[in-house]
TrEMBL record:
This is FlgD/Vpr Ig-like domain-containing protein. It comes from marine sediment metagenome. It holds the Pfam family FlgD_ig. Residues 56-117 form the FlgD/Vpr Ig-like domain.
Length: 131
């Protein structure tokens, strides 16, 4: 392999500099897109569909990496199902509830509550299962 060395002429220097600036702009634009996709605040959104049968999707947002718990409770406050429990990265998330409890039994028609909990944040939403 031969390596040749020579001095760059002015037009080559300008072209090289322009390419580096363009590359830097592309990287900055990509960073901006990534920054926009992270939610600004924690939130538990209304499930879709609601009412539902046989399953529903629960959407939630995490502005930072966090330990998250998403659980389903009946109207008496009894825990029916834990859908999410553990560390998650920041971002918009979703989880499916198939209408079953922690033992795999189908829940009856009625009103339930989904609760999302992280450090310093708790929010609940009413959801309705119909058969």
């Amino acid at each position: 392999m031969r390596i040749y060395t020579r001095a760059l002429i002015e037009s080559e220097i300008v072209a090289l500099a322009n390419n580096l600036v363009a590359l830097g702009a592309e990287i900055a634009a990509a960073d901006e897109v990534n920054a926009v996709s992270v939610p600004r605040a924690a939130a538990l959104h209304q499930n879709v569909p609601n009412p539902f049968n046989p399953s529903t999707t629960i959407h939630y947002d995490l502005p930072d990496d966090a330990d998250v718990t998403v659980q389903i409770f009946d109207v008496g406050g009894r825990l029916l199902r834990t859908l999410v429990q553990g560390p998650q990265m920041a971002g918009s998330k979703s989880v499916l509830w198939d209408g079953r409890d922690n033992r795999g039994q189908l829940a009856t028609s009625g009103v339930y509550f989904v609760r999302m909990r992280t450090a310093g944040f708790v929010q609940s939403r009413k959801i309705v299962l119909i058969k």
